[in-house]
Amino acid sequence: MRPMRQQAARTAAELLREDPRVVIVLAEISTDLFRDAVAVDPERVVNVGIMEQAMIGVAAGLAMEGFHPIVHTITPFLVERPLEQIKVDFGYQELGGTFVSVGGANDYTSEGFTHHSPGDVQALLTIPGIRVVVPGSGPEVESLLRATSASGGMTYLRTSIRSNDAAREVSFGRLEVVRRGAEATLVVAGPLLDRTLAAVVELDVTVLYATTVAPFDGATLRKVAGETPVIIAVEPFFEGTMAPLLTEALSDRPTRFASVGIPRSILRDYGEPEDHDRELGLDEAGIARRVRAALGR
User: Fold this and answer.
1) 3-state SS, residue 150
2) How far apart, in whole angstroms, are the C-alpha atoms of residue 86 and residue 254?
3) Are residues 145 and 180 in the same domain?
4) Backbone angles phi and psi of 227, in degrees to 5
5) Full domain range(s) for residue 226
6) Rounded CA separation 50/10 (Å)
7) Are 190 and 107 in contact (CB under 8 A)?
8) Contact in structure between 64 and 95 (CB atoms under 8 Å)
9) pTM: predicted TM-score of the whole model, two decimal places
10) 57-94 confidence digits (pLDDT tens)
11) Could you please report the per-residue DSSP string of 231-272?
12) Do residues 34 and 138 both lie within one domain?
């Protein structure tokens, strides 16, 4: 199974070949991954150099001319550095484009916190109309990138270095019911699904798999959560990021909500990714411990 970032580059090259509206805009990073795209049409692959804010402006200009830009660099340089340009150039102008990141949260652990971005999704959700997809495997990247590119909206596609062991059949905008239980409903985003399933194997809980965070599939959540739900979000970004989406979906009923995500007080480098997961409580043991605590055990 191809890693998510490599699959995104491969699918972007295929879309470039299939759709004359597609263009790819880069900021120096990962240019080697897009050699296939350059071979398809070098005039529709633009590398602006290490100028991330200009990258967004160039992509917006292309979008205004009727193209659908696929923009890629690592997360802190795609989201946090040019956030104003995404907000103004794309959001305010109501333009379509796909922003493909890698390295959100703590994937690039050894590079220090300048290369960590646990607040990426929360920041982007402040922009009206943006769609956020968080795949958990390479094949899911392909299906979600194709779906969002075809629909033409403004979309953030968050890939990760780590992934689930197996791909699932996913659809844009829809929660997938993975297992059912009576004690609580877990909404698990992207690459945390496998370790969450292992962590709750002995618990009587429902597990919903979210590869689309926004627009959120509130209808499915309402259908399976019950009238007095206990909802636990398991999210690979700052804890509480999905809380407004989940509570809004269940605003018509009393809800107890908890989040298993990256604690906001931790801004340190713990070494390798596995060490980060353990320190942040996002390894299998940490998720099990935190879910049980949310259930009062």
Assistant:
1) helix
2) 36
3) no
4) -85, -25
5) 175-294
6) 22
7) no
8) yes
9) 0.95
10) 999 999 999 999 999 999 999 999 999 999 999 999 99
11) EEEEEEEETTTTHHHHHHHTTTS--EEEEEEE-TT-----SS
12) yes
Taking the alpha carbons of 165, 168, 173, 179 in that order, is the dihedral positive or negative? negative
How many Å apart are CA 2 and CA 135, to the nearest integer?
13
pLDDT: which is higher, 108 or 158: 158
- Residue 112 confidence (pLDDT): 66
Which pLDDT belongs to residue 162?
Answer: 87
Tokens of 260: 């298993």
Burial class (CB in 10 A: 0-12, 13-18, 19+), 98: buried
Kind of pairing between the strands at 175-179 and 205-210: antiparallel
In the structure, what pLDDT confidence band is assigned to residue 161 with cuts at 50, 70 and 90? confident
pLDDT digits (tens, 9 = 90+) for 261-272: 999 876 666 677
| 23 domain residue, yes or no | yes
